[in-house]
Here is the input.
Amino acid sequence: MENYIPFCGTPPLPDELWSRWTFDPALLAGLTIALIAGVIAADHKRRFVVGWALVALLFVSPICAASMALFSARVGQHVLLTLLAAPVIASAFRPTSLPPMPVALAFAGLFWVWHAPAPYQATLESDLIYWSMHLSLLSCAILLFSAMRKAPERALPAAAFTGAQLTVYASIITLAPAPWHAWHVATTLGYGLSPLADQQIAGGLMWVAGGALFMTLIALMARRFLAQAEREDMQSSAN
Here is the structure.
């Protein structure tokens, strides 16, 4: 694998980061196909386009290159992908009838496995594994938020579990005495960070930003559920 260059390129130095946009033809073709298919299938086309644009930004913009240098950038990318883009895309389609808890368990398994040292390293050595990580995380997150929309009264345990497992993961990497990922041992120094400090920032992003995003989404779902219950009560009273 000595000659292999990761999909987002070699780790950039700070002064070249903002010039590192990713206009890979296969990526642009995939995004275009996804846009066309999604617009055709979506019930709420504008919502889909917004979600699609968020996904595109995460892989075309310098965020992609930054994730090669900083584990915190990779975690930030995944927070935005799964807790911001995914629920927006899920809201553009009819909700799935899948029960929320099994999907929450699958999402937790994917999240923990892909961020473990060996699988994480594998994503830096193969385009296939790299895209398997991102597509599986995004797809499962979309299914999770779709399932929670379909059955908001059954979503609370799944939401609580998802929030708890993300918090546990964040606390583990924040409080770890040593960095997990050998790839970043030398890539963070140009940014004035030790690998351990970079990992701690990643944990903080997951803990604070990820937690805030997730709690906002749960609050919106709770509001929707209460409004629906109120409408049903009013209809029952009228009858």
Residues 195-238 form the longest helix (44 residues). Residues 27 and 60 are 8 Å apart (CA to CA).
